[in-house]
Design goal:
Chain A: InterPro entries: 2Fe-2S_ferredoxin-like_sf (IPR036010), 2Fe-2S_ferredoxin-type (IPR001041), 4Fe4S_Fe-S-bd (IPR017896), 4Fe4S_Fe_S_CS (IPR017900), Beta-grasp_dom_sf (IPR012675), Helical_ferredxn (IPR009051), SDH/FRD_Iron-Sulfur (IPR050573), Succ_DH/fum_Rdtase_Fe-S (IPR004489). Chain A: Residues 16-110 form the 2Fe-2S ferredoxin-type domain. Chain A: Its cofactor is [4Fe-4S] cluster; [3Fe-4S] cluster; [2Fe-2S] cluster. Chain A: It catalyses: a menaquinone + succinate = a menaquinol + fumarate. Chain A: Keywords: 2Fe-2S, 3Fe-4S, 4Fe-4S, Iron, Iron-sulfur, Metal-binding, Oxidoreductase, Tricarboxylic acid cycle. The structure holds two protein chains of two kinds. By secondary structure, chain A is an alpha+beta fold. Chain A contains eight helices and seven strands, in the order E-E-H-E-E-E-E-E-H-H-H-H-H-H-H. By secondary structure, chain B is mostly helical. Chain B folds into two domains: 1-34, no CATH class; 36-145, Fumarate reductase/succinate dehydrogenase, transmembrane subunit (3 helical TM bundles of succinate and fumarate reductases). Chain B is 71% helix and 0% strand. Chain B contains five helices and no strands. In chain B, helix 2 (36-63) packs across helix 4 and helix 4 (82-110) packs antiparallel against helix 5 (118-145). The chains are: A alpha+beta, B mainly alpha. The A-B interface holds A 21, 23-24, 29, 32-38, 59-60, 62, 80, 82-84, 103, 105, 108, 169, 171, 217-221, 223-224, 231, 233-234, 237, 240-241 and B 16-24, 27, 29-38, 41, 105, 108-110, 114-116, 118. The structure holds protoporphyrin IX containing FE (HEM), iron/sulfur cluster and FE2/S2 (inorganic) cluster.
Amino acid sequence: MADHVAEAPVPTIESFTVTLIIRRFDPEVDEEPRWVDYDVEMYATDRILDALHKIKWEVDGSLTFRRSCAHGICGSDAMRINGRNRLACKTLIKDLDISQPIYVEAIKGLPLEKDLVVDMEPFFESYRQIQPFLQASSKPEKERIQSVAERERFDDTTKCILCAACTSSCPVFWTDGQYFGPAAIVNAHRFIFDSRDEAANVRLDILNDKEGVWRCRTTFNCTEACPRGIQVTQAIAEVKQAMIRGKV
Amino acid sequence: MPEKSAEALADEFARRRTPDIDPPGRPAGTLYRGHEGMWSWVLHRVTGVAIFFFLLVHVLDTALVRVSPEAYNAVIGTYQTPIMGLGEVALVAAIVFHALNGLRIILVDFWAGGTRHHKLMFWTVIVLWALLMLGFTPRHLMNVFSH
Ligand code: HEM
Ligand code: SF4
Ligand code: FES
């Protein structure tokens, strides 16, 4: 046939060999965590989570990490990537310098269980203590009305996915595990400044503790770590100010 | 599948375990790579603690005047040595940074724009600190070394 179209060559997508150095720990064998390196073939659009999958599925099935949604929503896979807390599922290979090895380790300040998995219980315990639920005595016929401006007041802190990237980036939390930590304060902020809620003063009291907001030294590590872009230090400052004024 | 002996299994596990590499010198994990906020806090604490220890010693040496004026004079006299003169530069550097950055922290906590501009304020602190030290250090060292 004359009008046979020559098949266009399929463009090959460039791939790279990326070295990951992962801080591994198996409580049944290791006395101390150890760094292990892996070379994986990756595309620029891949994420660190893809690299971890590749290692787990093709190289060493014992590599242990948490992930669920793989799309930055469930908050399971916060880890320290090149010395900063990030979600593995939101960290693209192309945004890292792959001429150097990439260091991956568990988040800091929470008990290490295995490889990249830590015990999140102390984190959630602080979260529960700030009473993260709406408290209102009225029982309206329909919905509880709120103006756009009132909703806007706490919009930023509604975005939290409880990944613990902020709390485990905080130097105060590393040395004082009793500190409530940024995530608990962010979630308290979400209700303290909600016009429908009536327990703001209860939460302000809880956070006025010596392990509460006054532990914050404004290092901004939390703000820089938050994968949701929440202005964490700003939220903490607003809670401090509400405490000093004695009202919201 | 043929049964494997326990030793064979243990052997296989040992082989499957990926080999260690030289750790990057930090079994406890890498250093957290924070930005201006974290390093200004580190400096603030280091200078704060340093100033505290200086003040502690300074209260003690001043209290010597109650022991005897001679003892007081002998100890205070050592402040005029060049080594102490350099130490004073370090002390002033620490106090000036701590004081300026302390004002920055107060603004971060209590000024509405504080958290947005904390990096700019940090670099402002550094520039002011450098200017003040440039003014102070030459005069002070001229004093120290001309005696
Ligand atoms: C010159 C005036 C001073 C100012 C404006 C100032 C300001 C401040 C501020 C605002 C903080 C709180 C830091 C934070 O919340 O992270 C602080 C902490 C501190 N200051 Fe000062 N300060 C001054 C003098 C001193 C002196 C004379 C000493 C030593 C006796 C000192 C030792 C400390 C220490 C040890 C801390 C704790 C640091 C930390 O918790 O990270 N400061 N200073
Ligand atoms: S505030 Fe951000 S970093 Fe902290 S737990 Fe929530 S989503 Fe994660
Ligand atoms: S896997 Fe759900 S947030 Fe990354």
